[in-house]
């Protein structure tokens, strides 16, 4: 199913850290049959590889700072030029600044892709509680929530038995810094998206289940209004 319209499109999932962009992107990938592009995942791959880019990014993420625009723009441009993106794709965590948004619009125009934005609105107190309760498997990368999706055995991955860890960027002090950076640098994008003339939808994602939020998003995309 491709409810983005007849033309290929980039679906941008927009919202603060912990708003559920990654979860919704994975669910939407199944029903839209297009790639899910997560800038966070791409950056973490470099960190895991321990290359020069990974070391630079790790220092920034641990301090709760955003990665420079030019670096992220290059990663996205390289990714969306791959053949699997010709029919459209889902962007998760990008763009985060007005400069990134401007560059993305040019990328999409050059590739004849439309732009659709879905803004996931979540109360910041909900985000802090959600992220501080998140755990990740250091081996396979699976994410767990101590409240909504706990592992079968406390502190242990269901898939490979590895001891779960708290990501550096999920510690409360870092989360608050990330939210401050979002409010300062990223939130102005809402006005930009709303005035862009492209499709722009706002979805309350504070308390509903992932499936309920998915239903809301798909209803907006299907109706096209």
Listing every helix as H and every strand as E from the N terminus to the C terminus, the arrangement reads EHEHHHEHEHEEHHEH
Rg (CA only): 17 Å
- The number of helices is 9
CATH topology category name: Rossmann fold
What share of the residues lie within helices?
A: 40-55%
Which sequence of strands runs across the widest sheet?
A: 2-3-1-4-7
- Count of the domains: 1
Largest sheet composition = 5 strands, parallel
Kindly state the mean pLDDT as a whole number?
A: 87
Structural class: alpha/beta
Structure description:
The protein has 225 residues and is α/β, with parallel strands linked by helices. The chain has one domain (9-123, 177-223): P-loop containing nucleotide triphosphate hydrolases (Rossmann fold), CATH 3.40.50. 46% of the residues lie in helices and 15% in strands. It has nine helices and seven strands. It has helices at residues 21-32, 39-49, 52-62, 69-80, 98-110, 124-132, 172-186, 189-194, 210-223, and strands at residues 9-14, 36-38, 88-92, 114-121, 134-136, 143-145, 199-204. The strands form two sheets. The chain has a five-stranded parallel β-sheet with strand order 2-3-1-4-7, sandwiched between helices. A hairpin with a 6-residue loop joins strand 5 (134-136) and strand 6 (143-145). Helix 1 (21-32) packs across helix 9 (210-223) and helix 6 packs antiparallel against helix 7. The radius of gyration is 17 Å and the shape is globular. The mean pLDDT is 87.
């Amino acid at each position: 199913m491709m409810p983005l319209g007849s033309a290929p499109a980039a679906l941008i999932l927009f919202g603060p850290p912990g708003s559920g962009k990654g979860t919704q992107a994975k669910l939407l990938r199944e029903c839209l049959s297009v790639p899910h592009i997560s800038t966070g995942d791409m950056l973490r791959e470099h960190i895991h590889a321990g290359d020069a880019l990974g070391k630079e990014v790790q220092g920034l993420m641990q301090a709760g700072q955003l990665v420079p625009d030019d670096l992220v723009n290059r990663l996205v441009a390289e990714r969306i030029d791959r053949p699997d993106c010709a029919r459209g794709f889902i962007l998760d965590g990008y763009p985060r600044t007005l400069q990134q948004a401007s560059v993305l619009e040019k990328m999409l125009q050059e590739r004849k892709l439309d732009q659709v934005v879905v803004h996931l609105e979540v109360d910041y107190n909900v985000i802090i509680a959600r992220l501080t309760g998140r755990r990740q498997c250091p081996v396979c990368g699976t994410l767990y929530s101590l409240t909504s999706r706990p592992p079968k055995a406390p502190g242990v991955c269901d898939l490979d038995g590895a001891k779960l860890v708290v990501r550096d960027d999920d510690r409360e002090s870092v989360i608050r810094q990330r939210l401050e950076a979002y409010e300062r640098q990223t939130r102005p994008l809402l006005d930009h998206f709303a005035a862009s003339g492209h499709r722009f939808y706002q979805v309350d994602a504070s308390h509903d289940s992932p499936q309920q939020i998915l239903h809301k998003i798909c209803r907006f995309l299907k109706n096209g209004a």
